[in-house]
Amino acid sequence: MAKRGPYGKGIERREQILDAALRTIAERGYLATSVAELAEAVGLSQGGLLHYFGSKEELFVAVLRKRDEIDVAGLHGPAPAAFVALVRRNTKVPGLIELFTHMQAAAADPRHPAHDYMLERYRAGTQAFAQALRAMQQDGALSRQLDPDAAATMFFALADGLQTRWLIDPAIDMAAQLEDAWRRYAGDY
Predict the structure, then answer these.
(1) Terminal CA-to-CA distance of the chain, rounded, Å?
(2) pLDDT value at position 9?
(3) Which of 86, 125, 148, 185 would be 133's cystine partner, CB 3.0–4.6 Å?
């Protein structure tokens, strides 16, 4: 068996850090989790941990990217139902919603490390959702009068707004709100 070089070990260590950060932030919350605690959880100093990411903000953006990879792998079924199921699953990881919401607000500043991530995420997400809606239109499952690009943009914005409201008032059923909005907008799915 060939030995892994330092590059391979660095990638492996980075993944360990991201896995630990995902778990910790999901359980404890973004605001209740310090970089020092994350470093301790993986047996590194704070400086050693940040060596793999460059800064605290870049670490948190990497955590969101990792979360997105996991979320995309878990998407199944027609676009609206898969989107609603993802929102429903997100209620089980409030700390990651908290992290996303904070990074989303910070991304309004083009100099922030989350800015490019958010631009890329929204472009890719809305394009994929719109493409799935086009496929539903071709299959006759969705009216051709619906504009897939506008619908995708609107539902991403609605989900983001609901997440922010949910952080303030967890009694809000985000998934039910999205299902209701979809039925009113496009009919059953």
Answers:
(1) 50
(2) 81
(3) 148
